[in-house]
Model the fold of this input.
Amino acid sequence: MILEALGSALIGLALAWATARRLPHRLPARTLVLATGTGGALIGAFITHMALGSGHTPATLVGALAVSAALQSLLLRPTRRLHRRQVPA
Done:
């Protein structure tokens, strides 16, 4: 269980770092992104571990990755390139 938690925290941190590096203009502060990625991965690992039980380490890490990615996607802001056309009155 300790190795699952450590592995999921590292996966979440790596995903958050890659996201913050790739999309810095669409994300809030880097510390928030890193904390959300790591925390989301730990929560995902906990939920997956409770649902599947022990002995499913790869599935637990995939669950951690999925929840971390889902929480990271909630932090994204829309791009500024979206312009709505003005409708003439």
In short: The chain has a mean pLDDT of 91. The longest helix spans residues 30-52. The two ends are 63 Å apart (CA to CA).
